[in-house]
Structure formats: structure tokens, C-alpha cells
Design a protein that fits this description.
This protein folds into 2 domains: 4-182 and 213-248, TIM Barrel (Alpha-Beta Barrel), CATH 3.20.20; 183-212 and 249-294, no CATH class. It is 20% helix and 23% strand. It has 7 helices and 19 strands. The protein has helices spanning 45-52, 76-82, 97-103, 131-143, 159-172, 226-231, 261-264; strands at residues 4-5, 13-16, 55-56, 63-66, 87-91, 120-123, 148-153, 175-179, 183-185, 188-190, 207-211, 215-216, 221-223, 237-238, 251-253, 267-268, 274-276, 279-285, 288-290. The chain has a 6-stranded parallel β-sheet with strand order 2-4-5-6-7-8, covered by helices on one side. Helix 1 (45-52) packs parallel to helix 2 and helix 4 (131-143) runs parallel beside helix 5. The radius of gyration is 19 Å and the shape is globular.
């Protein structure tokens, strides 16, 4: 396979090796859709390597392994051993610690000198995870040279857990950060959004959007947004298509109002810089693009 160039606006390459997860959190951003398709074909490592090792991405952009829980992917460790690009990892930490340390080198992880950036970002979920155990495992990983942070959600039921977790992390010198809960709870909308109407239900409006993310699903399909990824709809290409061009073009969409909050939120990016948004959306009127405020 020839080298695959990525357009310069791509700043994030999330690879969803699996959508499976050991946990079942009520506030999960992936799981709040009745139509979420979790049971998906999962590719062998050789297919991922054939594509990812030929992906020409800037040196300051890692490949982010996410899910679901990426360590549930059957060939997780063989994949990492052969992958040429540095990675960062989104994980719930529900893996065998000794096995991870034995099979993953800190040098395989993406590094950056910004203090807030962590190449292993641990999602804490109080219903299923113990605070002391989580901080202990994070401390062990950190002692082996991994760049670790624990991240929790400001879901209303998590407040007391977050306060205690923050104290435990401070005592153990583990980086801790609270992220926005996104979506509705008791009819109140949480989160900060660039396009707030985009999550309020499908609307009779034509839009075009473009993303700064290269989103790849478990079966190797490429998607323009997380909504399409999770519903397994409207893929724009495949890692098996040698002629697919990774572009920064606007693409028409008829699903405005059903956007996934991850795409349209005003967020902290992986460097914890606030105010970024994954997508740019414009309204359309009779083949003419108009500004959002018109």
C-alpha cells in the first residue's frame, strides 16, 4: 500500500478497535442511543497495521486508541508491538497491569511537553471502579515511566467521588482532571456547545460539515462524525479502499439535530486547551452556503 496523506487540518486520529466495554455507565456518551451498534466486526491486527503504518500524519498527531475499551481488542498487544506511529490510549484501566507493563513500552506512547497532556487517559467511573485501586494502578504505571492522568465526569451523582478522587490523586501525585458531562439530565442540558441546537432532535434543515478528526470504526470504515460511527451509518470510506482520499472538504448531512455531543461540544482538546470544536457546520439554502447566524 502506498503512503496515505492526511490533510493538514486533521488534528486527531481516533481508532476504535472495538466498541465493547466491560462497564455499563448510565452517563456513557457512547451508550445513550438506543440504536448504538456495539456488536461489530473487529479487524485482525494485520489489517490495521497495513493501513496505520502507511498513514502519513504529522509528527505532533498521535494515533488514539479508544472504544469501548481498546484493551479488550483481542490483538491489542501484537498491534502495539508492530505499530510504527506513537499512540495515546483512552482506557477504563480494567486490564491486567502486569501484562500491560510487560507488553507495552512507554516509548511507544506519544509524548508532549505540555503539562496537561497525558498519553494514557484513564476514565474513572465510580459505579464500577474503586478510587484507591484506580489511583494505585495509575501510580504503578507512572513509576514505570508512563505518562498517566485520571479523568472523571462532572455527572451530578459523581460529585462526592470526584472530590475524594481529587484528594487521592493529589496525595499520590497523579494528574486529575474533571471533564464536562454532556447532554441532558433531569431536563437540564449539561456541557458547552458550539452548536447547541445540534443535539436537540432532528430538524428540517440542510447542513454541510467538516471535521478535524479522522474517525475509524472497528470494521475499518471511516466516518465524518461520532454519530455515524456509533450508529454504523453513512461511512465515507474504508481503510481497504486504496483510492480513498482523506480530505478536509465539507460534506452534506441530513441528520442535523442528532449530532453526538462529542462532535459539537466546546471542549478541552487532548492538550487541555479549552474552546476547540471537532466540527464546523454551515447551513445550506438552494445550493448556497450561508453563515450560521443568517
Amino acid at each position: 500500500m502506498n503512503k496515505i496523506s492526511v490533510s493538514s487540518n486533521i488534528t486527531y486520529v481516533p481508532v476504535f478497535l472495538t466498541l465493547r466495554c466491560q462497564l455499563n455507565c448510565s452517563y456513557c456518551i457512547n451508550g445513550r442511543s438506543d440504536n448504538l451498534v456495539k456488536s461489530r466486526v473487529e479487524l485482525p491486527a494485520k489489517d490495521w497495521l497495513n493501513f496505520l503504518n502507511n498513514l502519513d500524519i504529522p509528527k505532533n498527531v498521535p494515533i488514539t486508541l479508544g472504544g469501548g475499551e481498546p484493551t479488550l481488542y483481542e490483538e491489542f498487544y501484537p498491534l502495539l508491538k508492530e505499530l510504527k506511529h506513537p499512540i495515546d490510549l483512552l482506557t477504563n484501566l480494567q486490564f491486567d497491569l502486569c501484562n500491560f507493563i510487560e507488553n507495552v513500552s512507554p516509548e511507544a506512547m506519544f509524548s508532549h511537553d505540555i503539562t496537561g497532556y497525558k498519553s494514557i487517559r484513564i476514565s474513572f467511573h465510580p459505579k464500577f471502579m474503586n478510587i484507591e485501586d484506580t489511583v494505585l494502578v495509575a501510580s504503578v504505571l507512572q513509576s514505570y515511566g508512563f505518562n498517566v492522568g485520571i479523568f472523571s465526569i462532572n455527572f451530578p451523582h459523581n460529585t462526592e467521588y470526584n472530590l475524594k478522587l481529587a484528594e487521592e490523586c493529589r496525595n499520590s501525585k497523579i494528574y486529575f482532571f474533571i471533564k464536562d458531562y454532556l447532554g441532558y439530565y433531569d431536563d437540564h442540558l449539561f456541557g458547552h456547545f458550539k452548536y447547541v441546537d445540534s443535539i436537540k432532535g432532528k430538524q428540517d434543515i440542510k447542513v454541510s460539515c467538516k471535521t478535524n478528526e479522522l474517525i475509524i470504526g472497528p470494521e475499518g470504515n471511516i466516518y465524518k462524525c461520532h454519530r455515524d460511527l456509533y450508529l454504523n451509518e453513512d461511512s465515507i470510506g474504508s481503510i481497504f479502499d486504496n483510492n480513498f482520499k482523506i480530505s478536509s472538504d465539507y460534506r452534506d448531512c441530513n441528520n442535523y439535530g442528532e449530532c453526538n455531543p462529542c462532535d459539537v461540544k466546546l471542549k478541552t482538546n487532548r492538550f487541555l486547551e479549552m474552546g476547540s470544536c471537532s466540527v464546523d457546520i454551515v447551513k445550506k439554502r438552494v445550493d448556497q452556503v450561508i453563515s450560521w447566524d443568517q
